[in-house]
């Protein structure tokens, strides 16, 4: 059996710090809920953004070299909204996935970013909804926040009939039961979940 060098053993046997184990500190990882995460397959967006900013600075510096250090700070290139939008468009065109989004939103006094790329349209949409609900919900469970937002919005949601069948099944109701029986079965609930199971 080949022996490991001291370097390879120490690197593999290295104990990770709490910070290194924290998935949420990475730009390409978003927490869906406790213990569930979405990891962007597009790589680290922060490294790419930093590289794009550096390239923009270098290009502008090459066009307008500054001889005085005091003027250098004043002449540092400003990245415009158009620059950011163009970079994001290029970034998403290069990603090998069918669906993706990058959202930046202001919630109360904070700003949050969320990016997902996936080949699953439902996963992408679910990730966006969960992220948004977690930021506006103030501790209210995500499913309740989404129900409230949809109920209060002017958007009428059409659910597949099989979701109603799932609701009836959960309350042991069938075709012989009346609408009154359904209303009585759910009367103690604050909300009901429409799902197939």
From TrEMBL:
Residues 1-79 are annotated as: Disordered. Residues 66-78 have a biased composition (Acidic residues). InterPro entries: DUF7500. It holds the Pfam family DUF7500. Residues 9-36, 50-63 have a biased composition (Basic and acidic residues). This is Flagella cluster protein. It comes from Haloplanus aerogenes.
């Amino acid at each position: 059996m080949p022996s490991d060098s001291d370097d390879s053993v120490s690197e593999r046997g290295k104990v990770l710090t709490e910070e290194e184990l924290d998935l949420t500190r990475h730009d390409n990882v978003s927490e869906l809920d406790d213990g569930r995460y979405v990891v962007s397959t597009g790589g680290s967006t922060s490294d790419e953004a930093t590289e794009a900013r550096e390239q923009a600075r270098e290009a502008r510096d090459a066009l307008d070299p500054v001889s005085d250090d005091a003027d250098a700070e004043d002449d540092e290139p400003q990245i415009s909204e158009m620059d950011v939008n163009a970079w994001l468009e290029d970034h998403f065109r290069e990603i090998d996935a069918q669906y993706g989004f990058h959202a930046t939103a202001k919630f109360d006094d904070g700003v949050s970013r969320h990016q997902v790329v996936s080949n699953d349209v439902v996963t992408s949409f679910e990730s966006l909804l969960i992220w948004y609900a977690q930021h506006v919900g103030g501790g209210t469970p995500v499913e309740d926040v989404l129900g409230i937002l949809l109920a209060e919005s002017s958007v009428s949601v059409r659910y597949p009939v099989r979701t109603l069948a799932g609701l009836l099944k959960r309350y042991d109701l069938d075709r012989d039961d009346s609408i009154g029986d359904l209303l009585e079965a759910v009367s103690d609930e604050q909300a009901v979940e429409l799902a197939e199971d």
